[in-house]
Amino acid sequence: MGVDLGIDRITRDLSGAILIFTRLSKNESAATSIHRCFQYEILNGAKLSDRLAMIVALPFVPFVIAALAMIFTMLNGRAIKKRTGKSIVRQFCEQFSLAARFAILPPWYYIFELHDDDKRSRAGEYLNRFEMKAGLYRFLRDYNGGFPIPDERSTLYIKYKTSFMAHCHKYDVATASILWIVKEEQIIPVDWKKSDFPDFDLFVKPLNGQGGKGAMRWDYMGSGKFVCSDGRSAMGSQVLELLRQDSKHTAYIVQPRLINHSDLTDLAYDTLATIRVMSCRNEVGGYEVTDAVFRMRQNSATIVDNYHAGGIAANVNIQTGILGKGTRGAWGVVTDGWYERHPETNVMIFQRKIPCWVEMINFVQHAHCSLFPDQVVIGWDVALLESGPCMIEANKAPDLDIIQRTREGPIGNERLGELLAFNLRQTVVAKYAEPEVHPLC
């Protein structure tokens, strides 16, 4: 989380310094409305210290962009030249142009494949990470589009895994149970009250972790013996003792290992695959699923499917539940391109149909309506088990890079962009007594 926040602050200040003097398009598209709201509300409304930081950063912007362009061209340039024929010099120059016109920094030139001329012609329709995560998500939460101000408890339910689990149980939303919490050298039972130790596989992850970092799996081998994904072995309660010793520095939650739906077994190895599902409040006050991405691990050496941990992602057609091509590309390293088949197992990804799709859509819409009706937009992580959809977690500031990367195009003027623009206009109306003076209205 600290790394993500640092990236968001740096990109906000760097891109904000550019945007202070950027003239946005005069069209009335959803994407332009979102950019305009960021420029007006977040930049103009920023604290004096933040605005000064952006102004101070301005003289250094060309040098920083040059350094970033050099780094990411070195990482990707040869592969892109081989794939597309576009020269390295031209790639380098296009990164400068995009940064100056749209505040799109060099990593995202490659993440969004803006070396492709057709995609670059729509550069203004991409929603940038810094706009959403460094400002507009909070703006939506603070004023909530004219609806009642969000309950402060919602943030706690989303942030804390045990609270989230209890909240899901309260509203009959299937979720992974937590057997124990291990922190500060204490073992705290949650959903496991029995005296004997479980005789099934366990999944352990840091209590406050993100991105799959620090996760481990303890597989049950029979006769009370467990083997960890890092090679250690232990008997029953010794597993908890090892975690208790480690909990001086890191708190853990211990859960049953969840098993993928049988239709996904060959695609996901034996690691749980999850679907990132975006839902947003619509024009009539309901909650609409707009986008989804299926995530799977890259190889047998990893035990999580997280995209920023090197996992593979594929867009899911919302209407049909059918997968597009798989890809990687987090953090601006995109040398692998696209996969119709999984690069390690050779299992077909492209055109695969996800099971229980209609049930999954209904499940997420019910979860948004029941659990967090006071939240405008949520990115859900959902697993598909043999028993049906299972909620893993909710994200109140979901990353949109993975959505735009996997669908091979911007979402600013697609359905999610339309709903974000609508809710931002409603939020402006809720904030100002005379909203007609606001450029968004």
From TrEMBL:
Source species, domain of life: Bacteria
Bilayer-spanning residue ranges: 52-75
A Pfam family the protein falls into: ATPgrasp_ST
InterPro entries: RimK-rel_E_lig_ATP-grasp (IPR039523)
Domain Alpha-L-glutamate ligase-related protein ATP-grasp, chain residue ranges per copy: 155-404
Keyword entries, A-Z: Membrane, Transmembrane, Transmembrane helix
Descriptive protein name: Alpha-L-glutamate ligase-related protein ATP-grasp domain-containing protein
